[in-house]
Amino acid sequence: MSGNSDDARADAMLRRVRIVLVGTLHSGNIGAAARAMKTMGLTRLYLAAPADFPHREATYRAVQAVDVLEQAIVTKDMAEAVADCTLVIGTSARQRRIQLPQLHPRELGVLCAGSARDEIAIVFGREDSGLSNEEMQRCNWQVHIPTSEAYTSMNLAAVVQVLCYELRMAALGNAQPNEGGWDEPLASAEGMERFYDHLESTLTEIDFLKPTAPRQLMTRLRRLFNRIRLDQMELNILRGWLTATQKAARGELDSDRTE
Amino acid sequence: MSGNSDDARADAMLRRVRIVLVGTLHSGNIGAAARAMKTMGLTRLYLAAPADFPHREATYRAVQAVDVLEQAIVTKDMAEAVADCTLVIGTSARQRRIQLPQLHPRELGVLCAGSARDEIAIVFGREDSGLSNEEMQRCNWQVHIPTSEAYTSMNLAAVVQVLCYELRMAALGNAQPNEGGWDEPLASAEGMERFYDHLESTLTEIDFLKPTAPRQLMTRLRRLFNRIRLDQMELNILRGWLTATQKAARGELDSDRTE
User: Fold this and answer.
1) pTM for the full model?
2) How far apart are alpha carbons A132 and A124 in whole angstroms?
3) Which terminal residue of chain B, N or C, has fewer Cβ atoms less than 10 Å from its own Cβ?
């Protein structure tokens, strides 16, 4: 239905997207996810701490997507799989106490098609328990398929299929490549984690964060800054602000200050 | 995400749609298709000459959609399964010599949502050879998922999942961006201005902002925080952080701190 050039244009966008399966329990689902990806033009599969891989069942269910399995990158956890990404989207059926901004699958497609400079990860949790709250907090957005109230639990590979389908539809339709929209490269997930470490230690030092009674403070601040999608210069500004705060708290301000 | 009334309205449309699997070879696919249907709010499954049904593997893959399997109607062929339908849509990856009018999956959803008086069948062929030409000629339309040229062969249950997803999206009245998903009221413009005043004075106090050489610092910080819409609790957290910074800079920390 789509010509060669459509396919090539879609592929260029889809190459920026990795599918990250976290703690997958059933190897068959890994194979079925690989097949779902390849039929939609995605090829980059990351497996964070899979229960059992490689596995005969994965190979069987992948059918002609065995190459996707063979090129899959196995990491020790989700953090390692998304370290160099600038846009991380978690899938979740559950509402969290502190909610991330939510995307409909169709909005996911539009967002990814429009984010021409991002390295994108779409992250899928375990079959039985999904993503942990801590894993979810590494995400910029949460995507949710509006299932029937009668039965909300989709098969893992089926969720991969629907989201990859929406990505492909957006890539083929590719409304407007939002290329030159931003003037700075975006902060990486790894850079953000270093910022959160610095933020946590600084807030502790000025006694705003009490380690014995942290409440939801860091969770809320993560949600706030992940929503912004900081660029690298902004990250540098915030790091500078934190360093200045620490110096002030330690009484290390320059002597020529008036107050 | 969708309220009760959305779900009920969608269900009324989805009740007019039956899923017809013709000559399915792998019983596991029947179970996976039943699960895909039920999560999207469809319940009426017809099995035309299945190779092996009921089957342990179908039950296993259906998980909590066993009721869909139990209520499935087994017929001797496709003709019997669609006999009382007024709108019959065949799925096919192949181009036929005599081509039926073609639908994109999204158009399928729109067509079905708009056909309020029709009894609708969506028909899926065998895993290896699809629908025969004779079976295809019993259809009013043909629907085709635009797969990647690199791998066009989707799993049967995955095709059922994507089409049922599009039916559900159309039934729900299309992707509504989820406005009301936030758990706190948003910050007012006035509240934001007070925050920026507080931010500016604090950054001056810790010597990070130099009034004689402000560069673009406040401009960049405004752009940063304005990019998201802060809620009131987040604004309170940020104000608290600034106040704690000022106290620390003035040496007013509680005496029981260790450093």
Assistant:
1) 0.81
2) 11
3) C
